[in-house]
Amino acid sequence: MSFRSTVLLLLCLFSFTACQDSFIYDQAVEPSGNTWTYDQALNFDFNVQDTSLRYEFLLDIKHSRDYPFQNLYTRITTVFPDDTEQQDIVSLELANKLGLWEGKCRGDFCALTIALQERARFDTPGDYQLRFEQYSRQDSLPGLEEFRLRIALKE
């Protein structure tokens, strides 16, 4: 490989890595038996020190192609450092209106990333928790393999 080609390759690699998000948190939770039930909360505990920055919350969901619904209703509870809580009911859309799975599917499984919140700020440094509870009409939802919460620093 010539010197010029090597320099060009290195520049491309540096520019690619410069655009990557900087994750301060990356944790996966798997529902027991790949079935998410009402009594099984998915907890994500993280710490925030810098309240001057903005953060992006990404939820990666891996599910089977046999998951029986287009969406997934969840109750998301944020627990703040002072132990106060805020709850939101959120519909996570796994398929479009035509019934085609969002994200990428390979074999028997599909994976997608949902931006839960962009450019979020924290007023108080300390320990936080995001708790996801299954909030659908059916107690047991089969085919849910993994939930991964990632928190990225945003410029």
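Second entry:
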Amino acid sequence: MTDPGTSRRRFLAGAAAAAVPIALAPLKPWRTLYEVTGAQGPAARLAGVLRPRRGARLLGRRALVALEGPSSRELTAQVVATLPGGTKALAGASDDKLRGLLARSSHDDFAAERTVRCGGWVLSATEARLCALAALDERRRA
């Protein structure tokens, strides 16, 4: 016997609502939500936009020496400070948009002669910091 306060319609709606998460479990839709909402930290996000990653990591090892070994937190703060919109730009921008913002920052560095020499290359300060972040991210994962 059912509770007089529970109608058949309410029972079916409750059963359907309970069945949705069970039915979606094999699809793992929360994984996409986790990835889209910034599951990685800001340093990993910045390092992750570089292509090719292997080259960025190799150059990043030299950039770390040229920059005198700053921490991941320091490098991230320095790069984010150059982005229009700062932290909000980092959190809200797609990878392509973020690459565009970083390219603009790099261009501004060259215009202001903020460059770093490492491994025979002349990089903008932003590029050097990004490569250094890639090298630090590699160390962290190892």
